[in-house]
Amino acid sequence: MEEITSGHTIKSYDRELRMLHQTVVDAGRQVEMQIVQAVKSLEDEDLDSANEVVLQDKDIDSIELQVDDQIIHIIARRQPMAKDLREIIAVGKIMSDLERIGDQARRIARLTLHFYDSDNSPPGYALVADIPRLALQVVEMVHKAVDAFADLDSRLAFEVIRMNSRLDEEMKAALRRLSTYLMEDARSVGHVVDITLGLRALERIGSHAAYVARHTIFLVKGKDVRHEDPETVQRELMD
Amino acid sequence: MNTTVDAAAVIGAAPVAEARNEEAETVNPAVYEFTGTVGDITAAQPRMTARNVDVWYGDKQAIFDVGLDIGQNEIIAMIGPSGCGKSTFLRCLNRMNDTIDICRVSGEIRLGGEDIYDRRMDVVPLRAQVGMVFQKPNPFPKSIYDNIAYGPRIHGLVGSKSELDDLVESTLRKAGLWDEVKDRLEQPGTGLSGGQQQRLCIARAIAVSPEVILMDEPCSALDPIATARVEELMEELRENYTIAIVTHSMQQAARVSQRTAYFHLGRLIEVGNTDDIFTQPRHRLTEDYITGRFG
Predict the structure, then answer these.
(1) Which helix (H) or strand (E) covers residue B75, if one does?
(2) CA–CA gap between residue A110 and residue A23 (Å, rounded)
(3) Domains (ranges, CATH) in chain A?
(4) Which of A24, A80, A234, B19 qualifies as a cystine partner to A85, CB 3.0-4.6 A?
(5) Judged by CB atoms within 8 Å, which residues 248-267 of B form the interface with A?
(6) pLDDT means per 10 residues in chain B (295 residues)?
(7) What is the chain A residue with the closest CA to B287?
(8) Which ipTM score applies to this complex?
């Protein structure tokens, strides 16, 4: 982050860029906590905690608006160039991905409310178990993606992209497992569908984390790798 | 020709494993050691070519071993901090530095293959072929009509009065000035607004059918609207002329040019497509300058 925000002749421009960068890093930490809390609420059957996550999502929405305002201000007032321009573009996209991660955390929290705040019998833990298990991986991805952005670390960003490929494989395996429950007992169809949606939320979070990583690579290296496979990204980074 | 400098100074050249450390390095602009121009100095269709150009003012060297093509129908912007040599280099391209006694130029500058520093080269036709527009509008103290007609007359480009009338009108039209001045052609050029005067000077330059137009900070004395008009004119002129512009305004360089050359302490540090220079410059000094970190 040092080289992005230090050394402008106009010091207030430095401050604005530094503040923008830090706001987005903080938002990243916050959505990470929201995923952790949402998944824990599911494990602990904790309705209060789940409700908190639902409410917190509004904070991220408001941070996104605030970041967009700052971006418009900087473009209008500073006419950023080169790395500063890439920072502005990347920060906007990263914030948008973080906001969507927040939305997915809220979905998981709503799953807790759906399962445990109704008269219907909740699913057994074995059925739910894949969500906390895969959430560990997803939370690590979000954490590393935000670290990569905070430190402008393209190597770490690439690691997140690699992790996303592994996550996709794990997701397929989890869905196969779920389908066996369905085959054993067709009455579990309602729970299986709900848990599939929970897994889908985690898969989306992983995908958004990978996008945060890809935008970070654009910021650092000036290369747009949004739609490249991991091998191509690696080659681009070595160029 | 692709020349590359040391990896530490080139952005994005570091291997992934070392990315963080290398990106954190900075280059002190005051003591930076030059090891070669970054980027391609050649143009697909060069109109002018400069190679190994050195310029001295007395004992002081102002330009060091600069090589650069000026491409056909392109606008090339030369940017850099004050004293970087960009104007000095521009002035070499039509031998304007000849007027400075202590100035000495070596190396090779060619216009369409012809060495413009060949001692048999006549600078008068050269300066018609390579016209110049200066920072401050400097119309002749003559009528608007005569400002345009003067060059074609002395270069013998027109025969009759009606031919000259036609040339004045077509030139003023090309410069986007005709509708504004057609009813007062006999009034002094100095009576026009600053922006109009500058467009009159551009018209004066194109009246003698140059191949290349050099512009040294052409908009620095103009307001934003007049600047926009001059920039629009440059874009139109690009279809028929080659333009090299020195500007302190990076936004202007980004707006009008297709290629950009960044000068620093008399060296050509980096040259490349304008899109690339302003989004992902390869040299740390270029990046620091265009992002406003020094200059």
Answers:
(1) strand B75-79
(2) 27
(3) 9-238 (1.20.58.220)
(4) A80
(5) 250-251, 254
(6) 43 36 53 86 96 96 97 96 95 93 95 94 93 93 96 90 94 92 96 94 93 94 88 91 95 95 96 95 93 81
(7) A82
(8) 0.75
